[in-house]
Amino acid sequence: MAIDYSSYRDLSPFELKDELIRLASSRADRTMLNAGRGNPNFLATLPRAAFFLLGQFALSESRLSMSYLSQGLGGTVRVEGIEGRFDRFIMDNASHEEATLLGRALSYVRDQMGLQADRFLLEMVEGILGCYYPTPPRMLELSEKVVGQYVLREMVGGSVGLDTTDFFATEGGTAAMAYVFNSLRQNDLIRKGDKVAIGMPIFSPYIEIPQLAEYGLEVVAVQADPALDWQYPESELEKLRDPAVKMFFCVNPSNPPSVKMNDASLEKIASIVADRPDLMILTDDVYGTFADGFRSLYATCPRNTILVYSFSKYFGATGWRLGVIGMHRDNAIDARLARLPADAKAALDKRYSSLTTDAATLKFIDRLVADSRAVALNHTAGLSTPQQVQMVLFSLFALMDHEGRYKATLKSVIHRREEALYRELGVRPSEDANAVDYYTLIDLQDTCSALYGEDFARWMIERASTGEILFRIADETGIVLLPGAGFGATRPAARASLANLNEFQYAAIGRALRHMVEEYHAQFTAQRG
């Protein structure tokens, strides 16, 4: 089937995906295998079960008030005696493992974190009922502490204290990205024509948003090298020394190479920040929880770094839309706001005048909250309280998993899928201690060279673009993969998610890809006589 691939070259890989799905699903005699999107097919069931059981307790608490008026009517929750009533509820449901989790969770926040049990229960019960506006709008007070403890344990290993970090609960990492870009622009921290550095390859919206007319930013690519196991060469990181580069955006572990930044790169960036204390950094660490011994840039450059984390992938919660933005309370971005010229400060005083009479003291993270609701709706801002409760339960579930069983299980599942794909393809996957393997980049040249030698690999690169091959794969096999070029990869490659199909299906993908390479090799051999 002849397809003019050129008409699709400018599409985002996620828009191109729709065309590939349409082609892959065009035949009724086969099953489409969509490895193009990273929505996992695994999810954490126990903290969800705890959420639903907690909802039953919350309803019983509400029914203690005002129910005499009408069947189905409840009232606001009473804090007096709530801990005793909760203990009895847990005992009555002791046969359910989710009740055990809830009981342990209360013990953890009381005995390990030193929070008041009755206040925590009141926040959770009112939160799951959704009967009040989120207060404070940035994040519920005790929820912020619990979620913050989880995020900082996973991202920085305790090197940055909970009492030094503010968190803003958002509708997933997607909203976090949108809010950060918008507030940077609204607060005159990035302007049209400014340079921003982007660690490539990367989740494609980080490439696409700066190109929008309202931003008009000049992108400086900081390119990871596949020959260095997808780490950034020092020469690439040196680009961050340019004083014209206002900000560095990165995803760590990377998407799609799925490799965490090594210690040498972290320390190199920290040394550049020491020389450039005005450099702003955004690190999107959604895949960090799949790695052992992970360290975020927030661990080495906390004052300069905006930390974004999403619960979507690790807990299989893409539909919940749960994420946070974390910022150090003494940060370089607030310092930059203080140094803005007088005319910019005056404009911002007017912008935020409905919130405070002293806008100069308004922190950037609180400006994020206000800007997320067009400032005027700041009083009704914030992530819905039931969402925040589920975020807390996910966090407590992970914090109390002292043996790391959940993480070990997820890692084992993903690694087996990777092995199945590459075994059937006939090549060995890379062995890298920094790899988390949530995605894999199937490099066209490396694969062809490993199977049939360098001459064939060169022949393939000259004659077949990755995009054309991906359309042929979708058409002939029903398999959907995404082009690495759409994520900023410089070598022809296809991105496959290892999270959203089962092991036998990845084996089928490997076999189909191997069969296609064999067909190309037959053409190569025929042309060579």
From TrEMBL:
Transmembrane domains' residue ranges: none
GO BP field: aspartate metabolic process
Enzyme class at the top of the EC tree: transferase
Obligatory cofactor(s): pyridoxal 5'-phosphate
PROSITE patterns reported for this sequence: AA_TRANSFER_CLASS_1
Catalytic activity: L-aspartate + 2-oxoglutarate = oxaloacetate + L-glutamate
Keywords: Aminotransferase, Pyridoxal phosphate, Transferase
CDD domains associated with the record: AAT_like
Molecular-function GO term, any one: pyridoxal phosphate binding
Residue span, Aminotransferase class I/classII large domain: 190-503
EC number(s) from the headed UniProt entry: 2.6.1.-
Family: Belongs to the class-I pyridoxal-phosphate-dependent aminotransferase family.
Protein name: Aminotransferase
Organism: Komagataeibacter saccharivorans
